[in-house]
């Protein structure tokens, strides 16, 4: 598995602890509060940063249950995005 870029690794954080992540093979790893290593798989070059308790539910969900499968082309269009903001930049979850 190729290494993720240093730029990407510098912005990724553990969803449980908020700590920086390090790549070990095909996983990203951080140390949890109890001293245990928290591991997150990298599949097809994409880090899967789901907390461990959500992995079984994500694996069990059919493909049409995932976000990308819920919206047809044009159904989640510009008319709904930013309604009432009149030209304001979209807000991100981190704001």
From TrEMBL:
Residues 57-95 are annotated as: Disordered. It comes from the Bacteria. Residues 71-85 have a biased composition (Gly residues). This is Trm112 family protein. It comes from Arthrobacter humicola.
